[in-house]
Amino acid sequence: MSFSEKNTTNSPDSENKDSQKLILTRLSENIKKIKEVLGNSTDIIIREVGIGKSKKQRIAIIYTDGLADKTAITDFIMESLMLDLDATLDTHSEDVIQYLKDFCLTVGDVNDIADFQTLFRSILNGETVILLDGQPKGISASTKSAKDRAVSQPTTESVVKGPQESFTETLRTNTALIRRKIKSPNLWLKSRVIGKVTQTDVAVMYINGIANDKIVKEVFTRLDRIDIDGILESGYIEELIQDSKYTLFPTVYNSERPDVIAAELLEGKIAILVDGTPFVLIVPAILTSFLQSAEDYYQRSIVSSLIRILRLGGISAALIAPSLFIAITTFHQEMLPTPMLISIASQREGVPFPAFVEAIIMEVAFEILREAGLRMPRTIGPAVSIVGTLVIGQAAVEAGVVSAVMVIIVSITAICSFLFPAYEMSSTIRVLRFPLMVLSAAFGLFGVFMGTMAIILHLCSLRSFGVPYMTPFAPLVPEDQKDAILLFPRSSLLTRPRLINQINTKRGSNPSKNDANN
Amino acid sequence: MKRITIIIFLLSLTLLLNGCWSKRELNELAIVMALGIDKTDDEFEVTMQIVNPSEISSKQPSGKNSPVVSYHAKGKSLFEALRRTTALTPRKPYFSHLQMLVIGEELAADGINQSLDFLARDHEVRNDFYIVVADQSTAKEVLNVLTPIEKVPANKLKNSNEGSQKSWASTSTIQLDKLINNLSSDGKSTVLSTIEIVGDKKLGIDPTNVERIETPVILVYTGLSVFKEDKLVGQLNEEESQGYNFIQDELKSTIEIMSCPKGGNLSTEIIKSKTKVKGKIINGTPSIDVTINVDQNVGEVECDIDLSKIKTIHMINKSTSKLIKDKIKKSLDSIQKKYQADVVGFGEAIHRADPKEWKKIKGNWESLFPELKVNVKVNVNTRGLGTVQNSLLYKTKE
């Protein structure tokens, strides 16, 4: 994107050189330098005041307008330093900073800063930096208060029964939402700052003792390897840490539901939270995760099992329905029952295209409508859907351009592709549908089966952070079948997925107590 | 490594170059629903009944066009005749959905073996269609009769054949594999259902045939046709056909009517029948034991009879048993004496029972079969009386 191109060339490098330097002793020089590096940006507020009994100690209070909490700065920094501080300060003593930290600043989180890199990061994070004349060090006080969205209902993964909260764009809110679900001292959080220009906060969360140490280590190795100017969404991270670039299948799971993330953490997986997006990444990801909805666990297991079977059927239909239809109607007509053959044949009378072309037209038309529906302003949505239904559903059939059966097949396929609880997987299936259609048009059922087999072989070859993507089917893990295609009652779900965590596999002998969190 | 992947990918693309060579769109097919084979002047004449899909579907049929169209062609072989039809048909005939094969009387009398080979050999023709023989008409005439309600005559023929076999037992549903099996077995004989045109044959082709409340020309199954070797030798009537189905253990349900002691009739419905045929050879003389276990329900009572008495039920059982035995006897009389064709597979039964002795008598089987002794034993059980117990005609003694 243009943003990154523009910036990678000059500014980060020059900034890097500057920011490596340590803070100077003279305040005026420091302020000059800050102004120079930040380009005199008008939202950077630099306030120079004198403090102490004689008001001779010059200090500068620096913060970013909009990111820092002004009330906090006024009440706990300015007021403390300018009005309440009566002591005589020894300007050149090292202790002055310690004194201010210990006795003046009535703010929770206060840190020393010695170099410009930390200084700029603090300012741009919304912290307030206090520099003292005559000191080669500064203080940063946490006064972050970015405008953030309230915790609202999840939009991509809705459930009928279950928690109705979702993550927001603020990292801290998100970690708090997870902490609220798992109140264990073993829930560990480690941070990284990624993105040379954006300096995005990334947090890694896992339950120590449940998560596999090797995978945790691998996550950090891969995160540290990232060298990019900007991280704007967790999708950036996902792409940069995934095992295989050349696959359509997502090997990193994501969710905007704190309960899903909590459940995954309890299974020994590792969450990666990125500031600025409500989508939290989970590794390692296996195929079954993408086929399961949070609500499966909140319902009776029999109902959930049936719904999972239904979902699996629907998903298979979304993948192969059009190609099966093409194969059967153009190569294997003998497979249709006679009345059905006659019925379909009568609908095809006068249709100018072969079934394959017909199917491609309809599928592409649907994809266009879908994409248009997503991108256009919400207010004109109904207009497009009306045109879409009329054009596709009725006019095309009545004009004899496509047959009515094909409309049914495409609609079924379209509806089935919405069955996925995970959005990325439905995009994958939508894309794979097209090569399968080409194969079926060229080779009939033989092509469909070769294609499906190729997909399955590919799935078996995938790994996510060393865990085979197709577990618990290939390799077969008998215990994990309890929560794969079917969902067994909670009382029998006593173990965690075998291949994801290998040390602490027992969920506890009293499942009703332990699984309350899950 | 990357290079190899790219090369493999590009090579695999060439697979698509063959395109869709065997593809046929549905609107490029002429779906053949029934096939008729006749013999005229030493040549095969085929009749194809091809469905017109837009007239069949419920969506706005014009009503002006016939739902099916028939095409005829002649040839020295069946294959030639069928290929010749491509010069007439608007689309290439498609045989996988063949429902009925009608054999003309003349061809049947001449022998059907030659015409079956192509049907068994060709990959497009499946073997799940029913085979029937036209009585006193050609297959062409049978396939040129329009039928009401079931717009495709082939479907009518199929449904009637299945229906009468299932609940009346006057016909037999014989498919290609079974026919070939029968003709190549030891007895080398078979039966096929007989179809007959009732009414003026020439009127059947007219659309008015399906416009009236009472159809002037109809297609009726009248029983079974007997083939010796592969040649038609004669017909079995309804009763004999039922007897045949009893022996063959192919009877699913039928009706027996007996007369009551005090006058009037009582009908029972056979709901289950299980037949065991056992052959044996004693001192070089073969004989056959047929044991039939039958379950029946009382279906209709038109006489003064007390069904609440166990004695009455015994009486009914006995009568049914006698009726079935009579049917079988009549049937065997025709098969053994009149046509002398082992369509019931008694030869096979003896072969199975005593293969060594069978080898000795195999050569004489044709002369032995008409004289073969058949012992028939029928056990009948009455299971139900229906939803009322005694008839309105029953007078209680008070």
UniProtKB/TrEMBL annotation, chain A:
Membrane-traversing stretches: 312-331, 403-422, 434-459
Domain of life: Bacteria
Name used for this protein in its record: Spore germination protein
InterPro entries according to UniProt: Spore_Ger, UPF0353/GerABKA_families
Entry keywords, A to Z: Membrane, Transmembrane, Transmembrane helix
PANTHER family, A to Z: LEUCINE ZIPPER PROTEIN 4 (PTHR22550:SF5), SPORE GERMINATION PROTEIN (PTHR22550)
Keyword Signal assigned: no
Membrane among keywords: yes
Family named by the database record: Belongs to the GerABKA family.
Automatic annotation (TrEMBL), chain B:
Pfam families named among the record's database cross-references: Spore_GerAC, Spore_GerAC_N
UniProt-listed InterPro entries: GerAC_N, Spore_GerAC-like, Spore_GerAC-like_C, Spore_GerAC_C_sf
Keywords of this entry: Germination, Lipoprotein, Membrane, Palmitate, Signal
Localization in the cell: Membrane
Lineage: superkingdom: Bacteria
Main subcellular localisation: membrane
UniProt membrane topology term: Lipid-anchor
Domain Spore germination protein N-terminal, chain residue ranges per copy: 23-197
Domain Spore germination GerAC-like C-terminal, first and last residues per copy: 222-386
Family under the similarity heading: Belongs to the GerABKC lipoprotein family.
UniProt-recorded name of the protein: Ger(X)C family spore germination protein
Record lineage: Bacteria, Bacillati, Bacillota, Bacilli, Bacillales
